Prior knowledge:
Blueprint: E1 3-5, H1 13-18, H2 21-30, E2 35-37, E3 127-128, E4 147-148
Parallel strand pairs: 1-2, 3-4
Amino acid sequence: MTEIRIGSDNFDILQILLRGPEIWNQWRADNPLQKINLSGANLSGANLSGANLNCTNFNSADLSGANLSSTNFSGADLGGAKLSGADLRSADLSDAKLNDANLTRAKLSSATLNSANLVGAKLFGAHLFDTDFTNVNLRRAELFGAILFEETKIDPKWLPKTHPR
């Protein structure tokens, strides 16, 4: 398995991704053994809805304000990524590394985060309607102001403690 990163010789993986999810998904289907490294990429505001980005390295990438709805990020490394204001509705983030990611005001409704690592993630004002946090590590995660609903599947031990009045 070879690794392709931004600016690799004779190849710019970022240009394929920016051509749209349909072209990207076809390229991924044709190149299933390629390990993709987009760490540090600036994809703010990009439309990647429905893209297959499983096991991709987005460490410290900027995906703020991007349309990432229904995107497959299973097993991806999004550690330290900027995802503030991103639309992650119905995205698959199972087994993803989101440690220290900024998910402020991100829309995570109906997203699946089974067994994801959100240690130190910032979820201020994030929309968490029907979000699945089963077996998620939320140690040191900041959930203040996050919008939670009954349908959100989250272990109460991770919720902020209320102060008695």
